[in-house]
């Protein structure tokens, strides 16, 4: 076999192989793993310091939420009115609240509920949104019309506003009901995005190919269309995790989120409201913890968007 | 344009009935007897219960109750709270205050947000841009009520620049600080949106054409980039009105403003379900109408929509 680089004898002009795209085709190593959107996204994310900063922060918050006992030995529910609004002292880094609770212990223990509500609401919204959006977009017709109109109704009520009405009449208040109520009003956003993504993925050649091979419509949807439509949903889901945490804190702050006995930053901020003049630090620390947590998820959402949405990457 | 307007109005009708029905259904299908709740621990006589049930239409089937409520809504009758005060009267007193607050914060967030966003977009990658990005991200991640307490403490209590709480009449001047608090998150979103769309439009074909045909930079930026960059911002304003309403509840609560949000805040604290429902229902209706308005504004800005059939 002649070497590729040798000039060939020919009666008519043939471009040297270096100038043709053939060389590139020959050089494709078929054994090499193909780079999917996900590996590409990972490659672009791991080069960004923001990704590592936000991931480490989130990891730390998760550890704090799972094992708060590792970070403090003080009981967050132990109150001594003698310590009311006292400043920091040994063993009590951040001082005491008006009720005499240890501020540091409550900030540490408060992470749990914020994270549970954020994660649970996001998972619920994502699953419901993906399923509804995918079916509506893929099958179209009357199913799409009905589902889209129902979605419009829920979309026309701002999430927290709807949650305020719902929670103010709901007898059971805990992390699960708060997440459920938030999810009830927030699913249309994900469903709309998923529907849009499925509508465009449906046109792709691989869907036609899959149908031509005799694969059933449902299998085509589950195996090919849904996995190829997930990217924009994941971007929105990451950001919405942060907004759900804010929503829980807002509801708890208003007094209709978690019950007053629960450990939550929103509740603590509400309780500290009355002593803002005398000891502002009791309102500062839970606020800071809440803001940093939300910031971490927003930063991660930014990085994920840049990695998964090439258009956004080009804009940067 | 007229066709578009008609289509949007027709689309609004099912959404309006759906949303109001949803709110009504949610509240009235949930466990707990409102009449019993009215009396607390005391046990009223059956006749009293019956009279109250009739007065509030509770003896009629659910769907009839809903239709009566909607009918009342159109006549301006929003029902009475269980304390006897008509909701519409309460609303009439509270609405002007919230309208002032909302106008102030909308003006603040739109003007400041667009100006900062355009400058940042035109100087992409420069110091101003980087600062705007970091500050806006921080503002987005700090919830409204935290911003409220922070500014209340620093500007109100420490520096004494503003009144910490707002008096009953809530004049414009006292609403400046609450308006800034209310606008903070939306301001940050508008900065980011404007920046992104200005940066994107800078490399758009129509901008290159405008530059190539010799238009001054002033005209390219002022007419071609600016106007086209406003489209996503206007779309955002529709969503933002919902955020402002939630924000108003929190902000008016913190600054003790007796507006619509402050009334909801108090009603939530006192567990006055009916007041919360009526007020929030009105807020949702305003939200829908505002979104319709935003859609029309959108059509004015974007000729592709204006002339679409």
Automatic annotation (TrEMBL), chain B:
CDD domains reported for this sequence: TM_PBP2
Keywords carried by this UniProt record: Cell membrane, Membrane, Transmembrane, Transmembrane helix, Transport
InterPro entries the record matches: BPD_transp_1_N, MetI-like, MetI-like_sf
Membrane topology according to the record: Multi-pass membrane protein
Main subcellular localisation: membrane
Cell compartment(s), UniProt: Cell membrane
Membrane-spanning intervals of the chain: 12-30, 101-122, 134-155, 175-193, 233-255, 275-301
Family: Belongs to the binding-protein-dependent transport system permease family.
Name of the molecule in the record: ABC transporter permease
PROSITE patterns attached to this UniProt entry: ABC_TM1 (PS50928)
Source species, domain of life: Bacteria
Domain ABC transmembrane type-1: 95-298
Upper classification of the organism: Bacteria, Bacillati, Actinomycetota, Actinomycetes, Micrococcales
Record organism: Curtobacterium herbarum
């Amino acid at each position: 076999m002649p070497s590729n680089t040798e000039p060939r004898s020919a009666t008519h002009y043939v471009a040297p192989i270096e100038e043709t795209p053939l060389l590139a085709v020959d050089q494709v190593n078929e054994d090499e793993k193909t780079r999917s959107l996900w590996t590409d996204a990972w490659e672009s994310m791991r080069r960004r310091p923001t990704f590592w900063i936000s991931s480490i922060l989130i990891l730390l918050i998760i550890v704090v939420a799972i094992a708060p006992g590792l970070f403090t030995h003080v009981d967050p529910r132990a109150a001594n009115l003698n310590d009311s609004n006292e400043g920091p002292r040994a063993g009590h880094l951040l001082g005491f609240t008006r009720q005499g609770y240890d501020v540091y212990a409550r900030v540490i223990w408060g992470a749990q509920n914020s994270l549970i509500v954020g994660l649970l609401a996001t998972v619920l919204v994502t699953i419901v949104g993906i399923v509804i959006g995918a079916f509506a977009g893929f099958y179209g017709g009357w199913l799409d019309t009905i589902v889209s109109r129902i979605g419009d109704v829920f979309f026309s009520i701002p999430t927290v506003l709807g949650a305020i009405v719902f929670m103010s009449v709901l007898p059971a208040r805990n992390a699960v009901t708060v997440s459920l109520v938030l999810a009830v009003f927030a699913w249309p956003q994900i469903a709309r995005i998923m529907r849009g993504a499925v509508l465009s993925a449906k046109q792709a050649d691989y869907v036609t190919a899959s149908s031509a091979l005799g694969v059933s419509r449902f299998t085509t949807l589950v195996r090919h269309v849904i996995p190829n439509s997930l990217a924009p949903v994941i971007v929105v889901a990451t950001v919405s995790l942060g907004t759900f945490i804010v929503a829980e804190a807002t509801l708890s702050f208003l007094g209709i989120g978690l019950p007053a006995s629960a450990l939550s930053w929103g509740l603590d901020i509400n309780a500290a409201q009355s002593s803002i003049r005398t000891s502002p630090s009791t309102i500062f620390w839970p606020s800071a913890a809440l803001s940093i947590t939300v910031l971490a998820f927003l930063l991660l959402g930014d990085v994920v968007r840049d990695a998964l949405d090439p258009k956004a990457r080009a804009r940067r | 344009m007229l066709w578009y307007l008609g289509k949007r109005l027709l689309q609004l009708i099912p959404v309006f009935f759906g949303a109001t029905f949803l709110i009504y259904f949610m509240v009235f299908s949930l466990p707990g007897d409102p009449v019993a709740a009215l009396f607390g621990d005391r046990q009223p006589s059956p006749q009293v219960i019956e009279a109250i049930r009739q007065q509030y239409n509770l003896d009629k089937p659910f769907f009839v109750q809903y239709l009566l409520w909607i009918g009342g809504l159109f006549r301006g009758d929003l029902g009475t709270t269980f304390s006897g005060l008509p909701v519409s009267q309460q609303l009439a007193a509270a609405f002007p205050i919230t309208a002032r607050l909302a106008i102030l914060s909308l003006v603040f967030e739109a003007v400041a947000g667009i100006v900062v966003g355009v400058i940042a977009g035109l100087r992409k990658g420069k110091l101003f841009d980087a600062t705007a990005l970091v500050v806006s991200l921080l503002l987005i991640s700090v919830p409204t009520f935290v911003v409220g307490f922070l500014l209340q403490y620093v500007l109100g209590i420490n520096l004494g620049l503003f009144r910490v709480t707002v008096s009953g009449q809530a004049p414009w001047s006292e609403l400046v600080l609450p308006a800034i608090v209310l606008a903070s998150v939306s301001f940050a979103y508008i900065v980011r949106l404007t920046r992104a769309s200005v940066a994107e439009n800078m490399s758009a074909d129509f901008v290159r054409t405008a530059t190539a045909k010799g238009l001054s930079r002033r005209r390219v930026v002022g007419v071609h980039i600016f106007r086209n960059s406003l489209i996503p911002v206007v779309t955002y304003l529709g969503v933002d009105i919902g955020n402002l309403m939630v924000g108003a509840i929190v902000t008016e609560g913190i600054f003790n403003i007796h507006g619509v949000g402050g009334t909801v805040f108090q009603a939530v604290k006192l567990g006055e379900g009916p007041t919360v429902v009526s007020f929030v229902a009105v807020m949702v209706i305003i939200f829908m109408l505002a979104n319709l308005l935003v859609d029309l504004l959108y059509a004015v800005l974007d000729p592709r929509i204006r002339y679409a059939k």
